[in-house]
């Protein structure tokens, strides 16, 4: 099974058939897809300027999409290195029980679904790397009351998400499943109340 870097080389290789280059970009999303596979693909296509169903996109646009994905992956890999370093230090210092951020991180190891978007057409419009930087910054500070990506305060608790956890606070502005550790108990309670008002 090809890794992310070898797939990225195929996307860039002008000697490869255009269909293979597009396919290789899609396969990259099996290795790293912050919004989930379908939403990340939709995001990359819209930012690079080709349609999700376009079978013969401009190769330069494929490479532009890949470059955005690679930049975001670099941000996430740096975070994971720092996360692992911190956990080693905590264990060395006798802190064996992981916190809520650690529990969340365990579900997103490798970067898949870090900012899960259940609806593949509703996702942040900013570059992926910027979205991840905002999310990481929120994980490293005290919990707040708004979406760490777009600042929206309209959070709604949703069930039956195609993700783990399968329920949680979703930002109705940018569509991400907001990690619970970045929200205060009051914000989480407000998201649950918003769900009850919608379903009433």
Characterize the overall form: globular
Q: Strand share of the residues?
A: under 5%
Biggest sheet character:
2 strands, antiparallel
Number of domain units: 1
Terminal residue distance: 48 Å
Question: How would you spell out the order of helices and strands?
Answer: HHHHHHEEH
User: What class, by secondary structure content?
Assistant: mainly alpha
Instruction: Tell me the radius of gyration.
Output: 18 Å
Give the strand line-up of the largest sheet: 1-2
Percent helix: 40-55%
**Which whole number gives the mean pLDDT?**
91
- Which residues form runs of ≥5 with pLDDT under 50? none
Count of DSSP E strands? 2
- The number of helical elements comes to 7
Features:
single chain; 200 residues; mainly alpha; two-stranded antiparallel sheet; globular
Describe the overall structure.
- This protein is mainly alpha-helical and 200 residues long.
- 50% of the residues lie in helices and 4% in strands.
- It has one domain (4-198).
- It is built from 7 helices and 2 strands; from the N terminus they run H-H-H-H-H-H-E-E-H.
- A two-stranded antiparallel sheet has the order 1-2.
- The longest helix is centred in the middle third of the chain and has 34 residues, at 59-92.
- The model has no long low-confidence stretch (mean pLDDT 91).
What's the SSE blueprint?
Blueprint: H1 4-12, H2 18-28, H3 37-48, H4 59-92, H5 100-107, H6 128-139, E1 155-158, E2 168-171, H7 185-199
Give a short synopsis of this structure.
The protein is mainly alpha-helical. It is 50% helix and 4% strand.
């Amino acid at each position: 099974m090809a890794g992310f870097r070898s797939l990225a080389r195929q996307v860039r290789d002008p000697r490869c058939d255009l269909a293979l280059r597009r396919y290789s970009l899609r396969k990259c999303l099996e290795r790293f897809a912050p919004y989930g596979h379908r939403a990340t693909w939709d995001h990359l296509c819209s930012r690079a300027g080709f349609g999700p169903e376009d079978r013969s996109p401009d190769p330069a646009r494929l490479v532009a999409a890949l470059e955005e994905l690679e930049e975001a992956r670099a941000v996430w890999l740096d975070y994971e290195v720092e996360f692992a370093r911190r956990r080693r230090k905590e264990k060395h210092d006798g802190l064996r029980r992981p916190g809520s951020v650690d529990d969340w991180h365990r579900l997103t190891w490798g970067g898949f679904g870090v900012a899960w978007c259940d609806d593949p057409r509703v996702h942040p419009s900013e570059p992926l790397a910027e979205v991840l930087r905002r999310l990481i910054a929120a994980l490293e500070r005290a919990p707040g009351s708004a979406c760490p990506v777009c600042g929206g305060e309209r959070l709604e608790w949703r069930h039956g998400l195609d993700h783990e956890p399968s329920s949680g606070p979703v930002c109705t502005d940018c569509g991400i499943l907001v990690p619970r550790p970045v929200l205060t108990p009051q914000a989480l309670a407000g998201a649950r109340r918003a769900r009850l008002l919608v379903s009433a």
